[in-house]
Write a structure and sequence with these properties.
Blueprint: H1 3-12, E1 14-15, E2 21-22, H2 39-43, E3 51-57, H3 63-77, E4 80-86, H4 88-101, E5 108-112, H5 116-119, H6 128-131, H7 134-137, H8 141-146, E6 148-149, E7 152-153, E8 164-168, H9 169-172, H10 175-185, H11 195-204, E9 218-221, H12 230-242, H13 265-276, H14 290-298, E10 302-307, H15 310-315, E11 326-329, E12 334-339, E13 344-352, E14 355-357, E15 361-365, H16 372-382, H17 385-391, H18 409-416, H19 420-434, E16 439-441, H20 448-463, H21 469-487, H22 489-503
Parallel strand pairs: 3-4, 3-5, 9-10, 14-16
Antiparallel strand pairs: 1-2, 5-15, 6-7, 8-10, 8-11, 12-13
Helix pairs in contact: 12-13, 18-19, 20-21
């Protein structure tokens, strides 16, 4: 053992009952959990004199846990770990340019999983011993699917993402507020089952102090900033109108012809409802990014929101004013769904729901890396049981449930101190999304950044009143045709077939 590593271990590690080195509790992670990548197991590795280069998102989302676990990994193994943090808007190019120029700039990569269509040929396959690790085997089938390209597992699962509805349970169950809603709206106050109901409820609850905080409250916090993941919020709103449960062969494109579907009536209806929702936004809400949505709902300003788990977890932090006063449900649906095969609207007695498995954070090792052994050990350590249990509790970290155990209500009530009803609402919603028969996955094809930038620009124009919903999406469809032509229809189709196979599998 090198002198450097001896000093690191003696200063940072404690011996736990003779079981080996463990610092998990000392550094605030919690009890170490036995496994091939536990604190104890990684502490037995010696990477002294070697360097590991990691590129990740800016702090806090993903960037903060990346750095936290890199520090622990360095102290445990003696490695020199360098972490580069990059804003989301620059992350794709900062990873892609070294790939294209043949540079081995980074060993470990954290990025949005939808970029795998561009990255897959530059990534190392996850070695069998890591795929067979019980902690990896405990990843749900959905998120193992997200980690694969074709029949190869190229991404190391450390996050599971989906969109769902979050709402203030205490307000929906308040009898005085229920009576006021019934008197003014002529119906009972219910958790929105359709986007029309969502907008109606959100607008009703905008502009008055309904929680008695002395501050004005609002109905809905949504991700609307053009360059801050707004395209995902729009997909959530459009999906139930455009993803017919009985129609296969593509949601963004017709797989056979590669004709864009983005401007068909279901997508247009979703954008129209998105535009109407502006009346329920807080001040500045038309420029909200993901962080704004997290803290607006998580801090109690707004009645509802939808997107990733982060806003819900923020609301459930120990210091949150609305802890254990929130509920979860699947995204609102639609009673009219566009059938692109018949060219007509189909009516549903029960709203059609579309479970949106949205792009999530993922990780991988570069094929060009000369440190694959150390890189995979780091990713396995990042996702070990102790670290994951810790990270799931921190809303700003951006690590969300992805293993079978995370879908057990007792995991949240016993480990996190959640009330049983809150925990049950949360895990039932996540499980319903994971096993839903009508699912939407993100577009994962070469040039996906171009497609999503085009979509965000078009939706932003409509939201700003510069174009109608139809005009805006017609323009997006024209741009998508041009992008397909530039990249090559066969190349895009081959990649898109992977997405369609996931959507059509159930």
């Amino acid at each position: 053992m090198s002198l450097k590593r001896t000093l690191l271990l003696s200063s940072a590690l404690c011996v736990s009952g003779g079981a080996g080195f463990a610092i998990s509790e000392e550094v605030g992670i919690g009890p170490d959990i036995p496994g091939m990548c536990s604190f104890e197991a990684i502490g037995a590795k010696d990477y002294s004199g070697r360097s590991l280069n990691i590129i990740t998102h800016a702090i806090p989302v993903i960037g903060e846990p990346t750095a936290l676990h890199a520090d622990h990994f360095q102290r445990l193994t003696g490695a020199n770990v360098n972490v580069v943090h990059v804003p989301f808007g620059d992350l794709f190019q900062r990873i892609m340019i070294p790939f294209q120029t043949g540079q081995a700039a980074y060993d470990v990569l954290f990025y949005g999983s939808l970029w795998v269509g561009d990255f897959h040929s530059y990534l190392a396959e996850i070695p069998a011993e890591f795929q067979e690790n019980p902690e990896m085997q405990a990843v749900t089938a959905t998120y193992r699917d997200v980690a694969t390209w074709g029949d190869r597992m190229l991404q190391f699962t450390m996050d599971g993402d989906r969109h769902y509805l979050k709402y203030r349970l205490d307000i929906f169950e308040n009898e005085e507020i229920q009576a006021r809603f019934r008197e003014e709206m002529g119906r009972d106050l219910t958790i929105p089952a359709t986007w029309e109901e969502y907008n109606e409820v959100a607008i009703f609850f905008s502009g008055w102090d309904w929680d008695g905080s002395g501050e004005t409250n609002y109905g809905s916090a949504e991700v609307v900033a053009r360059d801050d993941l707004m395209f995902s919020a729009f997909i959530s709103r459009a999906a139930p109108y455009a993803k017919h449960p009985d129609v296969t062969g593509g949601f963004f494109f017709d797989l056979e012809s590669m004709e864009p579907l983005i401007n068909t009536p279901g997508w247009v209806r979703g954008l129209e409802r998105f535009i109407e929702a502006r009346a329920a936004f807080p001040p500045g809400g038309t420029n909200f990014g993901l962080g704004d949505e997290i803290f607006s709902f998580g801090g109690g300003q707004t009645l509802m929101s939808y997107s990733w788990d982060d806003a819900f977890i923020q609301a459930m932090q120990e210091d949150s004013p609305i802890r254990n006063q929130v509920g979860a449900a699947m995204l609102p649906g639609a009673t009219e769904v566009w059938n692109r095969m018949t060219g007509e609207w189909d009516t549903f007695d029960e709203p059609n729901r579309a479970a949106y498995i949205t792009w999530g954070w993922t990780s991988a090792v570069a094929e060009a890396s000369q440190n694959k052994d150390m890189a995979f050990d780091y990713l396995c350590f990042f996702a070990n049981g102790a670290n994951t249990n810790h990270d799931l509790q921190v809303g700003r970290f951006g690590v969300n449930p992805y293993r079978e155990a995370h879908f057990d209500a007792s995991f949240w009530s016993e480990n996190m101190g959640w009330e049983d009803a809150t925990a049950q609402s949360y895990v039932e919603t996540l499980a319903a999304i994971d096993g839903h028969h009508n699912r939407v996955f993100d577009l994962r094809v070469p040039g996906v950044g171009q497609f999503m930038s085009s979509l965000a620009a078009g939706v932003s124009e409509a939201m700003a009143g510069q174009r109608s919903a139809q005009e805006a999406l017609d323009s997006v469809a024209d741009e998508w045709r041009q992008i397909v032509e530039r990249i090559g229809a066969d190349r895009v189709r081959d990649a898109y077939a992977n997405v369609v196979a996931l959507e059509d599998a159930r």
